[in-house]
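Fold this complex.
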Amino acid sequence: AQKVTQAQTEISVVEKEDVTLDCVYETRDTTYYLFWYKQPPSGELVFLIRRNSFDEQNEISGRYSWNFQKSTSSFNFTITASQVVDSAVYFCALYGGATNKLIFGTGTLLAVQP
Amino acid sequence: DTEVTQTPKHLVMGMTNKKSLKCEQHMGHRAMYWYKQKAKKPPELMFVYSYEKLSINESVPSRFSPECPNSSLLNLHLHALQPEDSALYLCASSPWRGRPGQPQHFGDGTRLSIL
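Structure:
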């Protein structure tokens, strides 16, 4: 079975703090893809990053960084020096060949206070 | 601005009405999706079209009827909906369903309220 777990339901930080959003996944596929999406109050899901199962290199994009560890089945997302505009729900998602579907975690609501 | 355009942004309808949700993309994507999202929940897949053919129907009630008239357009026809159908309906597209792992690009969604 495929599953994505985001144990943090809500996180509240003060602006300029660093924050890490956790994502743990389960799959039996050897080839799979992991994603992070951001959903601001407007509703649109904004694609942030994709990682395939063969690429464990960490990635940094501006204030965003991602840590993919197959050994612990985790794909965590860190925002450095958070800003109010980062306030949103963040979804981790898994795409595998078995289902050919995007499986979403339950999401983490991040509130960045000024 | 999102590259997937959904209209209308908001829709209020009675249980006996018939309405349609529209989705349009001009990225040349050949896979299009409908999702339903309830408050504080993740999106749930409803339908997938691949090359204008319905490839996945997640056991959605027949009061929801999808249509893909061409590669750029996706409609969701609504009839005799129930109050529990009130939700955010999201459309998405991706380059080709046969190319695994391509990111899906989402529209802003239609917020649907059933009276």
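The interface with chain B takes residues 31-33, 35, 37, 42-47, 50, 52, 91, 95, 97, 100-102, 104-107 of chain A (CB under 8 Å).
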